[in-house]
Write a structure and sequence with these properties.
- With 157 residues, the protein is mostly helical.
- The protein has a single domain (4-156), classed as Four Helix Bundle (Hemerythrin (Met), subunit A) (Up-down Bundle).
- It is 60% helix and 0% strand.
């Protein structure tokens, strides 16, 4: 078993062209801070929150693969982060850069992962292979949500 298929899946889900349609990075391309901050309904997540949530879970998988300590994510908290704190282009770009940086760190860790580690349990729970398949699916799931929110917003104008 090789890490190559998992690396391919992570790439396709995040930023490589594939038959399935828009990937996560593609769903965020061209989205402005105002569009990212738009909330489809009270109590629902916006595009901005989905992007940061995706960055967090890339970090969580990376942490589990490498054994890094909890609490080292760039933002305080976990899972969902209320966004935007300040709806500015600079803040939006900073959070997109966080997603990109976290993806690159995860990708590098996966590329360096010995194939034998794929079947190994990670922190006593699931296997590394299971986590890697899951993070690719997670990106695609949220890419679809983002595409849907963009369509909803178009209907509101």
């Amino acid at each position: 078993m090789s890490v190559a298929p998992y690396l391919d899946a992570i790439d396709l889900a995040y930023d490589r062209q594939s038959w399935h349609g828009t990937n996560l990075r593609g769903s965020l391309r061209g989205v402005t801070a105002g569009q990212a901050a738009w909330r489809p309904a009270r109590g629902r997540h916006n595009i901005w929150e989905l992007a940061v949530h995706a960055a967090y879970w890339k970090y969580a998988v990376l942490r589990r693969l490498t054994g890094a300590k909890r609490g080292s994510f760039a933002l305080e908290g976990s899972n969902w982060f209320a966004r935007p704190v300040q709806p500015t282009d600079a803040a939006w770009k900073a959070d997109l850069a966080l997603l990109e940086r976290t993806h690159r760190e995860l990708r590098a860790a996966v590329a360096a992962l010995p194939a034998a580690r794929l079947r190994a349990r990670v922190q006593g729970k699931r296997t590394a292979a299971w986590l890697l398949a899951g993070i690719a699916a997670h990106d695609l799931y949220h890419a679809g949500q983002i595409q849907f929110i963009k369509r909803l917003r178009q209907g509101q104008r």
